[in-house]
Every structure is written in C-alpha cells, then in structure tokens.
Amino acid sequence: MHRPRYSLFSTLSKLLFGTVNKELLIFLFFLALSGIFWLMMTLNETYEKELCVPVRLTDVPRNVVVTGDLPDTVRITVRDKGFTLVTYEYGHVLRPLSFKFSAYADEDKGKGVVPLTDVQRQLQAQLYGSSKLLSVKPGEYDFYFTYGASKQVPVVFKGKVTASKSYYLAHTDFLPAEVTVYANKDQLDKVNYVEIEPFNMRNLQDTIHTTVRLRKIRGLKMVPGTVRLSVYPDVLTEETIDVPITAINMPEGFVLRTFPSKVTVRFTIGASLFRTIRPDMFKVVVDYNELSQNPSDKCTLQLIGVPHSVSKARLDFQRVDYLLEQQVE
C-alpha cells in the first residue's frame, strides 16, 4: 500500500534533482543572491523622499466648534540612506503630529496659529540622527473656531445652465434653501449667503436633481455641507391675450376712446406658467402728449408693461382709431 507513495517521491526527486534541473536551481540561487546584493547596494545609497505625516488638533473643548481645521497632513522631504527611508515609509516610525488646542487658540480672534518651528520640532524629534529634514509643506498651520456663534443664510446658485432649443430654465430650487453657518462674530457679520460649487450644464431638456457641495470659505463651517439642487426646464410656447387699451397724460375733462378697446398681445412663455398670466399684468397705453404733438386720425399704441415671466411680447397692431371726447359737467 505504500509503494505508490514511494513511487511518487521517487518521481519528484528525479524531476527536482535531475542534471538539467540542478543547473536551473543553481542559476536561480545565484540570480536571487545577486538580486539581494544589488538591493543592499541600492538601499545603501543616499536618496531624497517625500513622506506624509498626519496632523491632529487635540483636547478641543466640547463647547467649541472648529470652523477651519489644521491641514490634515504635512508633507516632508527627508534625505537619508535608502534603508532608513524604507523604514520611515513602511515601519510606522513617524507618528501623527499633535497640537493642543489651548496652547495655540486666541479666543479674542477665534483663531489659532501653530508656528512652523513647532511643526519642525515635532518632526525632528521623530527622525533618526542621520536624516536631514529638507522641506515641510504647507508652510502655514492655522485653525478657526467659535463658541457656537451661528446664523441661517440662503444658498445661491453659482455656475451656468443653458436649456436646449425651444426650452428655457423655469427655476432652480435648493433643499434645504438655507444652511447654518458657524464662524467668529466678525466673519459671521460679513456672510449674507453661501454659494454652491460652480455647476455647469448645457442643452438641458429634462428636470434634474443632484447633490452639490457648498463652496468652502476658510474659517466658516456650513451645516449641512451639501444641498440638493433641482433644475426645472420648461417648453417655450407662443400665446396670446387680449389687453384693454388705456390712455395716459390726459388733460382734465377729456376722455379718449379707442376702436377697438382691446388689443391682442403675443408673447413667449413657459407652458407651465401660462395659466398664471392675466390681462391686468400687461399695460397697453395711448400717450396723449405724443398724440397732441403728432396729430393724426389714428393713435399709436405702446406696450409699456409685461410680466417678468414672458418674453418677446408684441402687439398685433400698433395703430387704432380713436375719439377724443370732452366731458360736460
């Protein structure tokens, strides 16, 4: 029963230690050995390496709202032997830099500044004696905070959205329409609204709903940091409405009557908005001053008022017959 196993071991031994395979194993051994020597020589050279070290603001009081945090990472360039640089990168030698809130916070300004020398001191304390610290980025380390000062401000659109041909942008909505902003009092007094990050879209035909970020302002914390943007395009349609003609600048005791008494106004509007339009939203007039300066058997109509939601408003005709009557008391 053990013969098959012996036979298997015998076959494997022949395969592994045959003349050809022995030469292959020897070749692979020396290849690996030369690779190790090459790696050791390479790592023994001096290099420069950029490393990232986390940054933390610690012991922040519970009643403090940090509105602008320290940079979350400091990027340093170190010069040393390859062995040491590999240790920094993969050996978890560099620990996060910690800066105590109370040591740097200026309560009057609502701001704290960590000197670059303090950053360098903590870094240098973690480096080996053979390492040289060449650069530290960024160069400034500050944070902003407030003891709860806040207010509600509206969200406004920033960007450019164009509709396809025969469409127009009916309106845009934000949900929520207002957000809470936290900042120190001086900065809070200057903030009246917040903008979204630029949003651009072309040839829009269908309603869209998307989440957008609010544009960050240093020293200002916005809650929430994102809002729901809805953009509503609408189909443009040409419509008409009959509007009464009125006279302006009439002398006392006179009445001007036109024939007809109404005129058709043609205009372009979104299909969904047409039902909101009424004749009294338009104003078509005859100006007596213009009529008295240029006497004629017909008077000229002027369209001087239209709703803001309509465009390309025009009259079906510009001149009508009229009758000037003097009222008798």
Automatic annotation (TrEMBL):
The keyword Hydrolase does not apply. Pfam families: YbbR. The keyword Ligase does not apply. Keywords: Membrane, Transmembrane, Transmembrane helix. The chain crosses the membrane at residues 24-43. This is YbbR-like domain-containing protein.
